[in-house]
Design goal:
single chain; 71 residues; mainly beta; SH3 type barrels; 0% helix
Length: 71
Amino acid sequence: MNKAQDGQSRNHIRPGLQVRIVQKKDQKSGRLTEGTVHEILTGSSFHPHGIKVRLTDGTVGRVQEIGRPER
């Protein structure tokens, strides 16, 4: 799996997965926020800027990197 394309395909993302997202307010700086996926918000199977998710803490952003599932 290509690291740059990790967060662009919906089938690579599922609840419980550790991810790093970029929030709307951080798009210019590129600052990433780490958390666990609670809900997938993007309906399409692919998005060039990353699939939009809600983390367990309520933060919303687009997935930039995918980590390992939380146990």
